[in-house]
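Progress report, Aim 2. The chain analyzed during this reporting quarter is listed below.
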Amino acid sequence: MANRFKGEIDALCEGRRYTLRMDMLALADFEDATGENALAWAEAAEGGQASVGDMIEMIRCTLARHHPEADRQLAGDLLSEDPGLLLRLFRAASPEIAQDDRDDGPGKPVPVPAAG
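Predicted structure tokens for the chain:
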């Protein structure tokens, strides 16, 4: 079960529950995989300026703690089933974001990532 105090959320994919954790290790793994600064990338992603490939890679990195077998296919499937997944992860990892965006709930549009 997800622990919000640790930046964790749960997500469902094809009837199975997965726990994702956005912590420093996940951010470091993302940096190693992409060569990008994870904190700068996250800020840009919140504004809708992230490539789909990088979004999938971030989801894969956040799966690694609880699901080390997770691959890009699973990460892509999770993101396809829940396009707001990355935003929920940002909120879980940064409670101040959750406070600022209290009115942003289900049904709100999610920014479309930039191509690239």
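The helical segments are 24-34, 38-46, 52-63, 72-81, 85-93, 95-100. Residues 13 and 78 are 6 Å apart (CA to CA). These observations will guide the mutagenesis work planned for the next reporting period.
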